Task: structure prediction
Amino acid sequence: MEVLQLLVSGLANGCVYGLIALGFVLIYKATEAVNFAQGDFMMLGAFVTLGLTNAEYMHLPFWIAAPLAIGIMAVLGYLLDFFVLRHLFGQSQTAVVILTIALGFVIRFVAGVIWGHEPQTLESPLALGDVSMGGVVLGMADVAVIVVTVLMTFALYQFFQRTKLGLAMQAASQNQMAAYYMGIPVKRVQGLIWGLSGAVAAVAGILFASKGAIDPNAGLLGIKAFAAAVIGGFGSLPGALAGGLIVGVIEPFAARFLAAGYSQIAPYALLLAVLIFRPHGLFSQVRVKKV
Amino acid sequence: MRIHFKTSYEHDIRLFPDRWSFSVYAVLLLIAFGLPYLIDEFYLGEVTNVLIWAIAGLGLMLLTGQTGQASLGHAAFLAVGCYTNTILIEMGLPFIVAFPLAGIITGLVGVVIAIPVLRLHGIYLAIATIALSILADDIIVLLEPWTGGVSGKFPEMITIFGFEIERWSMPTRFYYLVLAVTIICTLFYRNLLRSPLGRAFAAVRDSEVSATAMGVHIARTKGMAFGLSCMITGWSGALMGYYAGTFNNETFSLVISITLLMMIVIGGLGSIHGAFFGAVVVAFLPQALSIAKDMVSSGGVAIPGLETGVFGLILILFILFEPMGIYGRWLKIRTWFELFPFARKDMFKRQKSYLKTERLR
Amino acid sequence: MSLLKIENATLKFGGVVAVNDLSFSVDEGEVYAIVGPNGAGKSTVFNLISRFYEPYAGTFNFDGQNLLDRNADEVADLGIARTFQNIELFDHATVLQNLLVGRHRHRKSTLLDQMFFTPRVRREERRHREAVEEVIDFLDLQPYRNKMIAGLPYGVRKVVELGRALASGPRLLLLDEPASGLSVEETQDMRWWIDDIRKQMGITVLMVEHDMGLVSGVSDRVLALADGAKLAEGTPAEVQSDPAVIEAYLGAGV
Result:
């Protein structure tokens, strides 16, 4: 029974990692760049919702505040691409990596100035009540997290596989120049994807903040989500979710069964092991360059 | 406008291309040696800090700027250097042996880690090195019998043949020690750049396939770059330990790794000058911010995240407007004056480039 | 005496057969050209010789040594240098530095030598420089010596890549489409250079080329490939008049 409880709570945590990882993978699939600030995006999404709905701020009803926050984050994502990332067009991945890390610092600082550094809780209807099934106790928020994550992964997966825009986004990442010549507005497509990933980050943030408190450093969670994305293989949406679940489940089990001090190492040790033995994740996409 | 007439191949092999640049660096060196007589102890300490960061910057620059491998885990190697040096001295080795050895051991640790890690490209490498940096913290705690764990360690006073050096009571002596290490590391770096290995680094950075076709062993060259980079970083770490006076598992955190990488980008990737310019920014930014804060408001309330936030903003501005860093800007200004009045606006215009997938490397 | 001898080479990518039971040999001192339509497997043959691809079957012999015993980075040590179809230069280095990388296989100094830049390294560097300067003179690259690759026009890059291969002092030079993208004058220069490389330097040349003018102008023998298999082999005139070749190029029923 204890094992089951650990498993379920691990899965719920894993879904949050998975959601953040989805954001990474979205951007990676479409722009070949990696947004190291995705965790901070999530934190910002949570704070924007909190600012809209909590009693001491604007006190809007949650069901208005949440879509609004998702919209705001989507616009923010688009603008970020428009004003910052678009100017890096064609530069190396490493430049984007460093830039987004710096961006994370800036977002963390701004959030700290606006909302302070004390942990705050989101007044969310999701945060109320527990569900008990066969001796396993689950928070409502946990259930919501799992359901929303699975739905979103499925929807995004369908989007990339089936829609014209989704395919255009993939094409744009694989060869920018060729995609240009094929009439794909590469820059606009990239802007859209940044907006989409902003929205996904907001959803992750809302769910995360419903599960517990949030503070400006919550974005550091992004590193674990990162491990999740890598374990799953960077180019794959279901892989990101799977990776998130693996990391999420390993954590409570490691904490329970490993000696103190070893448990927090577990996700990163796994990450390194995956990178060494399957250098491009469990669902890899790498081929040899043709010359 | 300077024109050099080259009369022998030696001209391109020499450390300094011409008499003018030789004299510039000679004057710079003279100033560096005379600095303790020019400024007070507080600022001498700050300059020492700049030099220590610059050494670390040189270490990472060798890997990132020359060989094109971005590492976000170099704080781990600062830690290895720092702990190794302290432990070796505690074991009874004299500083003059322990210190070089600490760097070499760090380099060897780097090579061992490089073997699996450097097969990775771009972001995967970045992620693996992040994991390294996070793991280093936990591993230091786990190795408590050697490292002192959370309570940390205090490095002993340095003695070189009975001559004592201590950071707080003898800042001038400590400054000269750091300066000597800086000069040695810079010379190593410069020598490598004009040697076959330095060219092999650039070859690996720019095109792995054609480097291979020219007989460059990719894995070995990258491993060499990683090892040498870690060696220099290890020395810097050892000096940082002395400079801080105490260190524990949290001293060499992921933030230090990130700061280091951002520092060399701001300074200018791929140049020795870049490491020094970047170090100046990193070391003096906290000072500048606290002065600025005093000017805005007299109440000295600490704002958490201010330093990293401003640092991040500076970096973003640099990547957007001056990807070549401070050194790149400096070159442009210098060229403008050298060619005056013939400089053209688009002389440094960047070529338009398109990114192809790195999945097909 | 054949310098390079390839027998029954086969390479498959998944289910696709890229090179199919191909045998040919290149004699010392000749210029040997491989022609064929796009996707015929010409560059693949080069990549097999460079050891970038592992063959499915076949023997690869260079000057009595088994190429398959070597790793990709050890091929240069045997005296095989190559250029690439899409130019693979070191973009953020000068022309001089690019050419000096060509000398990589001749280095003898150790890591410690290089860190301290001992007189030995200095002497070696001077020798490398002399060798590279000969190539610069040969290819008229003097004006570009200290220019960054990233700012050079396409035609010059093509020549620099040839120069880098020559700087390594090879016995066999693999040229992957040396004239593609070059203007008429540049192609003419390339033709003279290939002639001189063979005659003055005594280097054997194996090249892949589409420009039949260049091929018939410089090569002794031509191999026509289609779908990874040998279609015809012989003098340029023989191959050009071969019915199978004409059919492969122009399609059936002509």
In short: The first helix of chain B runs from residue 10 to 13. The CA atoms of residues 35 and 249 of chain B lie 34 Å apart.
